[in-house]
Amino acid sequence: MSAPLSDAQRRDWLRLSRTQNVGPVTFAQLIARFGTASAALAALPRMVQRGGGDRARIPPIDEITREIDALVKLGGRMIASCEPDFPRGLAAAEPPPPIVSVLGHVSLLQREIVAIVGARNASALGRKLATTIATELSQAGLVVASGLARGIDAAAHEGALANGTVAVVAGGVDNIYPPENGALYERIRTQGCIVSEMPLGQTPQARHFPRRNRIISGLSRGVVIVEASEGSGSLITANFALEQGREIFAVPGSPLDPRAKGTNRLIREGATLTESAADVLAGLRPILGHDFSEPERSTPKVPLDAAVLEAEADRVRALVEEAIGAAPVEVDELVRLCKSSASAVLAVLLELELAGRISRHSGNRVSLA
Fold this sequence. Notes:
The chain is of the alpha/beta class. The protein has 3 domains: 80 residues, no CATH class; 181 residues, Rossmann fold (3-Layer(aba) Sandwich); 63 residues, Winged helix-like DNA-binding domain superfamily/Winged helix DNA-binding domain (Arc Repressor Mutant, subunit A, Orthogonal Bundle). 45% of the residues lie in helices and 13% in strands. It contains 15 helices and 12 strands. Helix 1 packs parallel to helix 3 and helix 9 packs across helix 10.
């Protein structure tokens, strides 16, 4: 991993990550193609035009500088995915969040982490078990991560606070949500660590929570689910964990309790049945202390020869646009349909996404926006 970024490089990195229509996948492809955030920013206006958009909406430098300075005044810092201090688990995600804001003890992000998540409307027994498991895991030397929500999340943070806990939030790191957890937030800020990829001051919105959940699972060696109804955010976290190759632990519950439907299904599908911290430690012990496995890089890098690449992209552009519809389609399938190089198809998709004309989906799929 490279050396820390300079102040100017970090500003460019943040500007690129905050540019409209630039998500983690697009960001990674831009860095792979242009080498630096500065070079990618310079190329964006032309790429947006080639994709059929009006103009590139890049945040002004002054706005980015104010955010960085405000975070520093709060005692926090930003860590880019290319820097040595970036959490190892997130760095191994495909793709990692380009940059995260951190308040509190950054060193906790370099330790072994396990997540505990679950229902907001948790039962008293569920909260008690989450607290007990978190306490015992933290006493065993693990940091406990969760999402600072009411219910199971709050119970997990409470149990691990004395020995190390990380709260991943869906808004800015300075935004306390839910307000009822304000006192817990302040204690975690002092004794633990708060992490977010959202801008400072951002109020959490519904679409932000899946991104938060992906970070929770990405930070962790394993995810413990305590009470989760079908369709809950905790199951979204479990799905991210499966995609990232993390271990899944689920606490069983009564078939008569809707909050047990999700966890019981996870157990049927292969999650480790979990009744105590000992079950979690037994499942994690073989992998603790080893490097996170790097994901298989399914997306090839785009060649650096701009003239050749643009000519090939222009040749297949109509075919790519015709093949994309409202239903998500795999990028590999587009390459086969267009009978072109993957690099040319990726270049067209990159331009279309920057222009706001397509959306990306899990499983390396795209659709019309």
